[in-house]
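ok, trying the design again with the full structure, not the truncated one.
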């Protein structure tokens, strides 16, 4: 696995993200290919070496043509869904734009589907979001953490005139994921909405540099060179220094309280969610106001499949709203093996801790078939299968 830690002491923006990832080794050509796949007007990325307050960094410039095309969240979502992109890249890009749409909709009090991306610049935003998603995928980032985010202060000029810094969209985006923020030492916009959305979608834990074995580092430059501090976003890549037997990843838990669905429908809802890419889905009985019996539907999923999961919940259940929160996920190394029980093969899933088998989950259909052929109880074959799985590989059961 690859752990990434972002140093946001100078804020974050889309171009700073691109620069940091390129400086850390992500191929610019791969980012460009992903952007080209979206099928919008010609957008070009250019990288160059610069210094910010004496610190060497990579600046990625996004060059876009003049365009009068008005793009809403619905338009951009359609482009991303049709583009020939790897699913992890598409999933992250959709999640980032969905967050931007919700934040802008809240700021302007319109529906997310009708949000116009004029404030973030539609072509610039597509390049930043899709390029950064491709860069994270190329670097193999599976878990990301970040420092507190400097937002800036003062005023910034927009199409609506002067707006206060930090802007409402930035506060909404980072507030949604409970990110720690502060104004920082510079009286200007230090964190843009695109930068905030990328952080919100990517980061699952906030704080100082975690215990890790450092592999590569990247420094991405913003457009200005400040006197107060280097205008850069840094990324540190490596692997966790502790618990090397477990894999760490970020995941979302999406939930809804439902009190008006025919109980016979629930099995199909859960099956549909797993088919949509959810890692797990479950129901918890509960009582709502006035003693009404209900269920909490909970779904564990990755950012890659989050949009498909949300759509499935709305389509298959009766809820009209969702809540979600990001969680850190720890999972043991897993392997699928075949063991022999009295000469019959049975598949098992084993979990390993420091190379030792700690948990065994036999494939039930295989166990049931073996029990029928052997004329033994399912209970007995289950026990024999678990015992065989704990034997060293190659040793007969």
């Amino acid at each position: 696995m690859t752990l990434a830690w972002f140093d946001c002491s100078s804020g974050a923006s889309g171009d700073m993200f691109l620069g940091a990832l390129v400086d850390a080794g992500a191929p610019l050509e791969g980012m460009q290919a992903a952007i080209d796949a979206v099928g919008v007007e010609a957008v070009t990325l250019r990288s160059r070496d610069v210094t910010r307050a004496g610190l060497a960094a990579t600046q990625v410039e996004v060059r876009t043509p003049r365009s009068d095309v008005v793009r809403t969240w619905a338009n951009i979502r359609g482009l991303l869904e049709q583009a020939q992109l790897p699913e992890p890249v598409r999933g992250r890009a959709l999640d980032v734009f969905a967050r931007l749409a919700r934040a802008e909709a809240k700021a302007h009090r319109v529906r997310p589907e009708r949000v116009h991306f004029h404030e973030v610049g539609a072509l610039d935003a597509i390049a930043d979001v899709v390029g950064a998603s491709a860069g994270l995928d190329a670097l193999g980032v599976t878990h990301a953490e970040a420092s507190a985010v400097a937002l800036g202060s003062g005023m910034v000029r927009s199409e609506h005139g002067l707006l206060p810094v930090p802007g409402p969209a930035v506060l909404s985006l980072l507030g949604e994921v409970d990110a720690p923020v502060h104004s920082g030492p510079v009286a200007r916009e230090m964190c843009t909405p695109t930068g905030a959305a990328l952080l919100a979608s990517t980061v699952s834990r906030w704080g100082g540099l975690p215990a890790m074995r450092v592999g590569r580092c990247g420094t991405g430059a913003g457009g200005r060179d400040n006197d107060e501090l280097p205008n850069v976003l840094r990324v540190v890549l490596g692997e966790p220094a502790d618990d090397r037997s477990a894999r760490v990843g970020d995941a979302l838990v999406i939930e809804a309280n439902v009190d008006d669905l025919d109980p016979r429908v629930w099995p199909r809802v859960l099956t549909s969610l797993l088919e949509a890419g959810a890692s797990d889905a479950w129901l918890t009985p509960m009582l709502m106001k006035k003693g009404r019996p209900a269920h909490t539907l909970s779904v564990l999923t990755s950012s890659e499949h989050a949009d498909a999961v949300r759509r499935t919940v709305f389509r298959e259940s009766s809820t009209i709203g969702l809540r979600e929160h990001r969680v850190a996920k720890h999972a043991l190394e897993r392997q699928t093996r075949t063991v022999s029980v009295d000469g019959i093969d049975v598949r098992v899933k084993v979990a390993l801790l420091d190379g030792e088998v700690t948990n065994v989950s036999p494939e039930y259909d295989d166990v049931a078939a073996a029990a029928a052929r052997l004329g033994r109880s399912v209970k007995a074959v289950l026990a024999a299968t678990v015992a065989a799985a704990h034997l060293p590989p190659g040793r007969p059961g």
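Keeping the full-length input from now on. The mean pLDDT is 90.
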